[in-house]
Every structure is written in C-alpha cells, then in structure tokens.
C-alpha cells in the first residue's frame, strides 16, 4: 500500500546504498541538490549510509531556479553537515542556447530548453564523479519514471537510482520519518509544490496529474496488476486512466537506458538485471 512503513523503506535504502558502494569498492557519493523533496531524501540517506564526510552536494541553479530552492538546499546540507558547492549553469545554458538557435535555424523549443538544463547538470555531476572518484546517486522516483517525467542523459543519469522503486507519496512519508526527532529536511521542502524549475512558475502538475491522484492509480496498475478496465469499472475516471496508461506506454523505452536501481517492492519498473535487492540482515 502507499502507506508502506517509511522506517522499513528508509532502512532498506540506507543499507542498500551502503552495500552498493562496498561492492563497487567506492566510498564517496555526489548528488545534485535542487531544493526539492527527492534530492533532499537521497542526500539524507547517503549521509547516513556513507557518512557525511563522504558525500558531496552540488547546487546548480539556473535562470529559472527560485531563491528559496537554493536557500532550502543550503539549509539541508548544513543540517546534515554535508559539503556542498554551488555551480550556476546560466552562463553555460546561454552559450548552448545561442549555438542551438544557429544550428536549428529557428527558435529553440520549450522542451529542448528544459532538457538542455537537465543535461548540463548531468555533465557537471558526471564531471565531478570522474574528477573525484565519486559515484553519482540518482534522485528520480518511481512515479516520475513511470510517467517518463525525466530527461535521458540528464536527471536520469547516475550510478544508482535510490528512489526508483519508491512512489512520490512514499518519498514524502520517508522525509517525515527522517524528521521524526528533529528538523533535518526543511519544512518548506516538504510543503512546497513539486517543480523541476526548468521554466518560469513550472509545476509537476502542469505535466502530470497531482501525485495524490496519480500514485493510487499507478499502485493499482503496477503493484496490484489491475487492468485499466478494472479501474474504470471500479469508478476511476476513464480519461485519467487512459492518460496515465498512455504516458506509461510511450515512455517505456527510457527504462532500458537507466542505471541500476534499489528494489524495495515486488514490482520494479526496470528490467530484472537492473534491480538490486539486498536482505536487511
């Protein structure tokens, strides 16, 4: 169920990250820290699993990043005692944008502009990984991956996908568990509307159903193996079901190009060879 025990999820993720690094013979991780809930949870998990001195956060604000996202990210890193660097991508983005206009001979489309930012960030993070021998931890969650809401060679890159078997609503539950004794993840990260911040005033809900609506449908389709017809006959809006199924179908090709993921449940989205399942004992 979507209210799966957040402690069990958290413990499995921490242990899995620790064992993955041990098996890979690595000690250090790098994470792109956006000021959003997903990267916040991954940073907290990494700090617990590897030790705060072995984790590096990189903040990469763009022209569309909000000030509060940057300040939230800094506050989180400070709360965890994790080192962070700030690498604004506006200059690189503007150079690419100008070159793209010349290459295409026309205006650069909105999707191209958005994905360009994600791919610049991916290059920066992989550059850090190469330079310092760190492994990049991916921060995409299961809801986003199921909907194809991610950029290949951008925010979908990394050595390990930490949240790829965790739905967005479960990410919030894990965040609240992390804050059970003290505020580690700033409350504003938990309460603000999810956004990739790739364009002005962008919200995830511009492209996807609200997660409170989306996740129960995804759970029924993926975890319970119910058919679209089952959901519709049970009263779920037909246009909603058709929209979700369509987005799932047209984005399946991305799954074959993604890094390995930590498996938590019994119905991972990625091919079996990409799923890592560690016993807790």
Structure in a nutshell:
The chain has 281 residues and is of the alpha/beta class.
Defining traits:
9% strand; single chain; 281 residues; 12 helices
Task: Explain how this protein is built.
The protein is of the alpha/beta class. About 50% of the residues lie in helices and about 10% in strands. It contains 12 helices and 7 strands. Helix 3 links the parallel strand 2 and strand 3. Helix 1 packs across helix 2, helix 1 packs across helix 7 and helix 2 runs parallel beside helix 3 (about 65-80). The chain starts with 5 loop residues before the first helix and ends in a 5-residue tail after the last strand. The mean pLDDT is about 95.
The figure for the number of domains is 2
User: Major sheet, described briefly?
Assistant: 7 strands, parallel
Mean pLDDT: 95
Shape: globular
**Total strand segments:** 7
How would you classify the helix and strand content by structural class? Answer: alpha/beta
Strand order in space, largest sheet: 3-2-1-4-5-6-7
Distance between the termini: 23 Å
Contiguous uncertain segments of 5+ residues: none
């Amino acid at each position: 169920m979507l209210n799966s025990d957040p402690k069990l999820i958290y413990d499995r993720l921490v242990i899995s990250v620790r064992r993955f690094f041990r098996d890979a013979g690595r000690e250090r991780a790098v994470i792109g820290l956006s000021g959003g809930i997903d990267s916040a949870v991954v940073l907290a998990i990494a700090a617990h699993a590897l030790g705060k001195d072995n984790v590096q956060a990189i903040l990469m604000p763009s022209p569309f990043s909000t000030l509060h996202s940057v300040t939230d990210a800094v506050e989180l890193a400070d709360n965890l005692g994790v080192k962070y660097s700030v690498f604004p991508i506006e200059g690189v983005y503007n150079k690419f944008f100008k070159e793209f206009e010349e290459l295409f001979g026309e205006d650069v489309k909105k999707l191209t502009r958005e994905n360009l930012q994600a791919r610049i960030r991916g290059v920066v993070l992989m550059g850090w990984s190469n330079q310092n021998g760190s492994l990049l931890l991916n921060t995409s969650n299961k809801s986003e991956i199921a909907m194809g809401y991610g950029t290949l060679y951008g925010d979908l890159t990394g050595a390990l996908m930490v949240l790829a078997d965790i739905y967005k609503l479960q990410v919030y539950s894990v965040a609240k568990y992390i804050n059970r004794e003290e505020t580690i993840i700033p409350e504003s990260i938990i309460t603000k509307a999810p956004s990739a911040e790739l364009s002005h005033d962008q919200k995830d809900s511009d492209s996807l159903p609200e997660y409170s609506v989306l996740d129960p449908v995804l759970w029924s389709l993926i975890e319970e193996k119910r058919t679209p017809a089952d959901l519709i006959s049970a009263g779920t809006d037909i246009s909603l079901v058709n929209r979700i199924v369509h987005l799932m179908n047209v984005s399946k090709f991305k799954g074959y190009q993604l890094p390995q993921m930590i498996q938590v449940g019994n119905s991972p989205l990625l091919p079996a060879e990409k799923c890592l399942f560690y016993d807790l004992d």
